[in-house]
Amino acid sequence: MTKNFEVREDIDPKRESLVLLSDPKISSIPISECGEHLVRLEPSSKLTIDPKFGEVDTRYSFVRISVAKGLYRASEALPSELELRIYEGWRPRSIQERYFYDFVDELRGMYKDAQEDELNRLASRYVAPPWIAPPHVTGAAVDLTLAYVDGPELDMGTKVNESPEESGMRCYMDSNEISDEARRNRKVLSRVLKAQGFANYPTEWWHWSMGDQYWCFIYGHSSARYGETKPQQPSVA
Ligand SMILES: C[C@@H](N)C(=O)N[C@H](C)C(=O)O
Ligand SMILES: [Zn+2]
């Protein structure tokens, strides 16, 4: 996939102050798997599944049971005209690895002087590295946005999954370079998800999780509830 955009010189893409998923502070958090199953998110009057992902592979709409409950509750707390639109929940490890290494390759072309460690760190602003328990592979994480009920998505300042380079860092939750309306919309999303105990990955306004290592870091819990998992295979009669 080739994308045309320029690396912005005026914004520090390193943002040293942010704790990224590649940070040992995250990977060193212990995981005590609770054994909760994955369930498939079903559309409701306030929560829909983006057809692009649903069509690729319906497993992408699986999440842990508590995550699903939190999402439905969050969706019910939205103003009546709005719904949550889900892009991606659980994902297989193979896809996670592909996303990560494809992005490292893309960055290698942009940051010509960067060493491999730095490229990995920069990549982890956008994709979880495969050597941790990647939040989506644990079923703890979900990528989502706000939309009008049965209508278009709201302006959130960038599209879902626009990388830091592609969006000029506007994908960072606290970006000052988005419109007032987009900032208000991000606040609505944050309010309903935080009220249900979700944590945001600060480099991606659309990425929220519960029960994984990053969530532990944000809320100060001592161990994560979810390690890597897979949807259960239907039994063969
Ligand atoms: C690739 C992007 N949609 C995403 O999910 N990023 C997070 C950080 C992840 O890979 O867990
Ligand atoms: Zn995500």
Automatic annotation (TrEMBL):
<dbReference type="GO" id="GO:0006508">
    <property type="term" value="P:proteolysis"/>
</dbReference>
<keyword id="KW-0479">Metal-binding</keyword>
<dbReference type="InterPro" id="IPR000755">
    <property type="entry name" value="A_A_dipeptidase"/>
</dbReference>
<keyword id="KW-0961">Cell wall biogenesis/degradation</keyword>
<protein>
    <recommendedName>
        <fullName>D-alanyl-D-alanine dipeptidase</fullName>
        <ecNumber>3.4.13.22</ecNumber>
    </recommendedName>
</protein>
<dbReference type="InterPro" id="IPR009045">
    <property type="entry name" value="Zn_M74/Hedgehog-like"/>
</dbReference>
<keyword id="KW-0645">Protease</keyword>
<dbReference type="GO" id="GO:0071555">
    <property type="term" value="P:cell wall organization"/>
</dbReference>
<dbReference type="GO" id="GO:0008237">
    <property type="term" value="F:metallopeptidase activity"/>
</dbReference>
<keyword id="KW-0224">Dipeptidase</keyword>
<keyword id="KW-0482">Metalloprotease</keyword>
<feature type="binding site">
    <location>
        <position position="207"/>
    </location>
    <ligand>
        <name>Zn(2+)</name>
    </ligand>
</feature>
<feature type="site" description="Transition state stabilizer">
    <location>
        <position position="91"/>
    </location>
</feature>
<comment type="function">
    <text>Catalyzes hydrolysis of the D-alanyl-D-alanine dipeptide.</text>
</comment>
<dbReference type="GO" id="GO:0160237">
    <property type="term" value="F:D-Ala-D-Ala dipeptidase activity"/>
</dbReference>
<feature type="binding site">
    <location>
        <position position="143"/>
    </location>
    <ligand>
        <name>Zn(2+)</name>
    </ligand>
</feature>
<keyword id="KW-0378">Hydrolase</keyword>
<dbReference type="Pfam" id="PF01427">
    <property type="entry name" value="Peptidase_M15"/>
</dbReference>
<keyword id="KW-0862">Zinc</keyword>
<dbReference type="GO" id="GO:0008270">
    <property type="term" value="F:zinc ion binding"/>
</dbReference>
<comment type="similarity">
    <text>Belongs to the peptidase M15D family.</text>
</comment>
<feature type="binding site">
    <location>
        <position position="136"/>
    </location>
    <ligand>
        <name>Zn(2+)</name>
    </ligand>
</feature>
<feature type="active site" description="Proton donor/acceptor">
    <location>
        <position position="204"/>
    </location>
</feature>
